[in-house]
Amino acid sequence: AWTKPVPFSAAINSSDWDAQPCISADGKTIFFSSNRPGGQGSRDIWYTNRQPGGKWSKPENLGPSINTDGDEQTPFLHPDGQTLYFTSDGLPGMGENDLYFVRRQPDGSWGTPQNLGYPINTKAAEGTLTVSLDGRTAYFAANRPDSQGGIDIYEFEMPAYARPQPVTYARARVTDAATGYPIVAKVDFIDLKNGQSYVSANTKSDGYALVCLPAGKDYAL
Fold it and tell me: Fewest CB within 10 A of the end CB: N or C in the chain?
């Protein structure tokens, strides 16, 4: 069963339009679209970080390198934690809303957004892109001449230049060394290159925890 919906953090929700949230795979960052004051134009992409203790920071605008005086919407951060997909009608494009991607740089900044190009983008409005874990298949919604009526769901093979970094899952189980019984505990996956915790999770009652990790790195648990 699902719990009764409740308003999200007052630090995030405002009296303006706040919508289309996407949470990162490590659970530490939420991206969303909002027309609140302080942006670059109408609807911009904003983000907020989870603080120690579970509270969320004051939302910050992603800045003029991504947001324009038009509308930037439907952010989707791939589980690789580095590739952000979104729609915009303010960046150079093929027509109405187009699909774009931008990569996070090693210093934490964002690069230059790139249009996914034709025939993915057309003069119609493309939106709400979602990319599979392996980065090869993508899904989006659009109202095109070949649709069955109104807005339809489309899929395509993601071009190599726009694919996210390889990602994998790790599953861990914590048990009592003496009894072998499962333990509810916090587990940390440490990036051995910088010694920082990449992601943490709490095991469930069966002692298991499942996390998403960028492939090709060395981790300690």
Answer: N
